[in-house]
Amino acid sequence: MQWNSVGEFLAMGGYALYVWGSFGACLVLMVVEPFLASRRLREVRRSLIRERLADELESQQRTQ
User: Fold this and answer.
1) Residue 52 is part of which domain span?
2) Residue 42 lies in a domain
């Protein structure tokens, strides 16, 4: 396709809503996903620490 102006490019031949909406959704997901992944990682680490501490406490109570 060849566009004669910026307006024609932005209109995308009448499909601008779909094209730019797709780009926008992709951009939002690419920005949000790293934050969600880091939050999940923190939750898993906290869970593992709690589990380890509970196991240590349990083993100490068995030896006493």
Assistant:
1) 6-63
2) yes
Q: What is the residue type of 18?
A: Y
- DSSP string for residues in 26-63: HHHHHHHHHHHHHHHHHHHHHHHHHHHHHHHHHHHHHH
Q: Which residue has the tokens 């680490």?
A: 45
Answer whether residue 1 is part of any domain. Answer: no
**CA pair distance 3, 59, nearest whole angstrom:** 73
Distance, in Å, from the CA atom of 4 to the CA atom of 11, rounded to the nearest integer, reads 12
The number of domains in the chain is: 1
pTM for the model stands at 0.64
Q: pLDDT tens-digit profile of 28-43?
A: 999 999 999 999 999 9
